[in-house]
Predict the structure.
Amino acid sequence: MNDPRVDPPFVTDERTMLENWLEWHRQTLAVKCQGLTDEQLRVRSTPPSPMSLLGLVRHMAHVEHMWFRVVLAGEQPHSPIKEPDNPDGDFLDVDTASVEESFAVWRSEIDGARRASAGLSLDSVGKSQRHGEDCSLRWILVHMIEEYARHNGHADLIRERVDGATGE
C-alpha cells in the first residue's frame, strides 16, 4: 500500500496540531481502502455488524457534513449519502451504492469542512446546536479526531478480514 500520510508535528500550536491529527486520520481511512475492488470495499465485518469499508467512508462523509457544514456553518442538512427516513443508510446501503460517487462525496465533504472552518478561531461557536448544546470549533475538531480514530480501528479489522493487510 502507498502511504501518503505525514505524521503530525510533535510541537506546534493547538490549531495546527488538531488539524494535522484530523488530516492524518482522514488519510488513514483512505489508506485502509486503497487498492481494493468495489466488491472488497462492500465486504461486511462480522455478523451482526453491517460495517464495511465503503460504509465507513459513507458514514464519515455524513459526519463531516453534519459537524462542519450544519453545526459549525449553520447550513441545512442535504447529505446525498443519508436520507432522513433511512438513518442507517450510510452503513446499510452499500450493496447498491456507487463506490466512485461515495468517495467523491466524502472528499467533497472534507473540502467543505475545511472551507467551513477556515479563518475561524478554535473558540468559534457553531451557528446551530447539536443535542441542544453549542459547540466550539475546538470541540468539533477533537470529536472528529475521536470519530475517525474509532472507525479507523474498525477499518483495520475489516481490511484484515478482506485481504489480510494490517498496519498503522
The domain at 14-163 is CATH 1.20.120.450 (Four Helix Bundle (Hemerythrin (Met), subunit A)). Residues 137-163 form the longest helix (27 residues).
